[in-house]
Amino acid sequence: MGMKTGAHIVWDWNGTLFHDIDAIIGATNAAFAELGLEPLTLEKYRELYCVPVPKFYERLMGRLPTEAEWEAMDDVFHRYYSEHRTSCGLTAGAVELLAGWRSAGRSQSILSMYVHEELVPLVRGFGIEPHFIRVDGRTGPSGGSKAEHMVRHLASLNGVAPERTVVIGDAADDAVAALHVGARAVLYTGGSHSRMSLEAVGVPVVDTLEEAVAEAERLAA
Question: Fewest CB within 10 angstroms: 76, 116, 121, 123, which?
Answer without folding.
Answer: 121
